Amino acid sequence: MKREDIREKTMQLVYQMDITGDFNVEDLSIVEESVKAAAKQQAVDTLTAVQDHHEEIDSIISEHLDRWTLDRIAKTDLAILRTAVAEMLYVDSIPVNVSINEAVELAKKYGDEKSYAFINSVLGKISRR
């Protein structure tokens, strides 16, 4: 499974965490169902970072929004941002520029016509901090 596919599955799980309000990933069977074993560690690392640091991740995202609040961001865009920020800050095996580029690609696929530019802008500001 390619890294892009792993990231997409991970973002979908982060989206599901937000929708259910449950950021607990202790039961990683959902990861095993969604991601093949060879790719599991990347997904687990990212999901664990989101679980352990979701308030900090949200705070960092909020600090870099211009005239926006988290509750105004589309749930898919927020899941993409959370996934990328978790990778950027807590998953050393993934270069920051890769996380940003892949987040932009996910935004093109799952967001509206302006999502990718918005996500690129927010993640660019975060990467420069």
SSE class: mainly alpha
Tally of contiguous helical segments = 6
Principal-axis shape equals: globular
* Mean pLDDT value: 87
Poorly predicted residue ranges: none
Q: Can you count the beta strands? A: 0
Our count of domains comes out at 1
- Radius of gyration equals 13 Å
Measured as a percent range, the helix fraction is: over 70%
Q: Give the percentage of residues in beta strands.
A: under 5%
The CATH architecture would be: Orthogonal Bundle
Give me the CATH superfamily. Answer: NusB-like
CATH class: Mainly Alpha
Q: What profile does the largest beta sheet have?
A: none
CATH topology: N-utilizing Substance Protein B Homolog, Chain A
Blueprint of the fold:
Layout: H1 3-20, H2 29-34, H3 40-63, H4 75-90, H5 96-110, H6 115-128
Helix pairs in contact: 1-3, 1-4, 3-4, 4-5, 4-6, 5-6
Summarize it:
The protein has 129 residues and is mainly α. The protein is built from 6 helices and no strands.
Explain what this protein looks like in three dimensions.
By secondary structure, this protein is mainly α. It has a single domain (about 5-129), classed as NusB-like (N-utilizing Substance Protein B Homolog, Chain A), CATH 1.10.940. Helix content is about 70%, strand content about 0%. It has six helices and no strands. It has helices at about 5-20, 30-35, 40-65, 75-90, 95-110, 115-129. Helix 1 (about 5-20) crosses helix 3 (about 40-65), helix 3 (about 40-65) crosses helix 4 (about 75-90) and helix 4 (about 75-90) packs parallel to helix 6 (about 115-129). The protein is globular, with a radius of gyration of 13 Å. The mean pLDDT is about 85.
